[in-house]
Amino acid sequence: MQEPPPAVHAPTPASGPEPPDALGADLGWTLGVVFRAYVRSADVLFHDLPGGPRGYQVLAAATQQPPGAQGALAQRLGIDKAVMTYLVDDLENAGLVQRRPDPADRRNKRIVATERGRTTWQATQVRLDHAEEHILAALDPADRAVFRELLRRLAARAQSLDPVTDTCQIVTDIAPQDPSAHTATRPRD
């Protein structure tokens, strides 16, 4: 027997003005607004980290998981291998990660966080947690947990259906082929 979905609590008055009905029901608009708020916060948090958000993702992976091969890490994060090389170079030059030979195959390099990298990741993670809580403040703590789990499941499903192997390619994929196709026509006087 399936459990009923969790109750959704009404937003608190501090959550701000409600969007117009047509937009509030539009998945793309709502995701875009939340994503924009997240990106703005992340840009501030990652401004001094080599590679910005991508650098943070590599540092997080190098800190939280067993050392991974650079190529496998690039694939998992959806970063082009050439871009990953430069990104790891920048993180290594900043003293945040090291490349170490893979004992199983010395042709591969494993990316390992340094002590400075772990300290930087921890400090950044604390600030990121605060920023995320600010973005999710319209939800009570139980709803935040449910939202995160639902979003994780949606992301896992989307990734399994259409794997992102190069986030740079996403821009090319969504960019209009004919720029005039998305230009609104102006009424004539």
From TrEMBL:
Source organism: Sphaerisporangium flaviroseum
Source organism superkingdom: Bacteria
Transmembrane regions listed in the UniProt entry: none
One Pfam family from the record: MarR
Protein name per the record: HTH marR-type domain-containing protein
Span list, region Disordered: 1-22
Residue span, HTH marR-type domain: 24-156
Coiled-coil spans in chain: none
InterPro entries: HTH_MarR-typ, MarR/SlyA-like, WH-like_DNA-bd_sf, WH_DNA-bd_sf
Biased composition (Pro residues): 1-20
